[in-house]
What does this fold into?
Amino acid sequence: MSDITITTSTVVADTNAAIDYGFAGAAITAGMPLYIDAANNNVLKPAGNLSIDEAAVVGIALHAAAIGQPIAYITAGDLTMTTSPALGVASVYVLGSGSGTGKISPTLDLDNSTGTRYGTVVGIGVTSTKLRVGLTASAVLNP
It folds into this structure.
């Protein structure tokens, strides 16, 4: 398996979503998991597996933003989006591949990596187009 591809124009927070706001410290697109860069004025950047800090996902972007622009992101609740492949019902989704940033992948992808990914859960598929966002950053590198 590999990272899912998100159709950015379909990313919409449901009515039960908890939403927070910040400022972009890098180019961001809708559907990207985000982390807070404490070393850079607490701006939001696409999350990745390059460090424990970058793997500490705080939410998923609800729209695109350029550096310095405000950004809204979901921290909990349901997120509707079209993905390829479609989300699996009751499937767990994690911070995506170690080689990129701002990606989401099925947990099976984490199981098949060695020493390149932190165990960061971003949510569970509720339907083929709905992710129930539930963030857990373990700060543990996959052995």
